[in-house]
Write the structure tokens for this entry.
Amino acid sequence: MTRVWIFMLMVLCSGSLAAEALRVGVSADYPPLVYRQDGKIVGIEADNIRAVGKIINRDAQIVDMPFKKLIPALRAGEIDVIMSGLSVTEERAELVTFTEPYMEIGQMAIIHRDKVGSFAQPWSIYREGVRIGVEPGTTGAMFAATELPDAQVSFYADADAAFRGLREDQIDLYIHDAPTSWRLATSSEDSDLLSLYSPLTSEYLAWAVRRENGALAVELNRALATMKGNGTLRYILNRWIPVTVEVK
């Protein structure tokens, strides 16, 4: 009887764990990946979260926080997964386990339309003294540090702040992930800004879990494979992105 009760207790415990909500960390300030609209969190990752939740049969609890806090929160066990347009880098891979990528993107440069003549050629951003804006801790900042040693680099908290910097002629270029350039394609408010649309890097976006949580990574990879196989991922990307991107 004792062994039977122990077995039943193990089954009940495993069932309750499976039913626990998946705590998903996002930084909802990154359209069209994930952002707030009319009080709701929307975008590519918001749709991904809902799709994954249905596939793995777990409710998803979205936890919104500043981007720089996502990886520390994940490692501290405050969230289970980051689904927030996170680029795969070697530095981050030392801290977290990435799933298979769901999209290929790259860094792109955004300028004010008044400067089109100065930056018409791809090599023009590499000139000495070019004033570059980046967001701290991003792959855009890494690119500027390694590939633009002669540039004057300024840091901005987010894209909106950098856009103001472009308009006020504080910087010549703002370098950020491709989704920020896609945002310009559908925004009438930013019609005075222009993306050069020539990728400066090749990067992959993926979801991240704690390094010791390999079981969840496997589960998420299976869900992603399902989304790719049945067309769900393509549908989500086409819904939010006005240009063609690579699905990996």
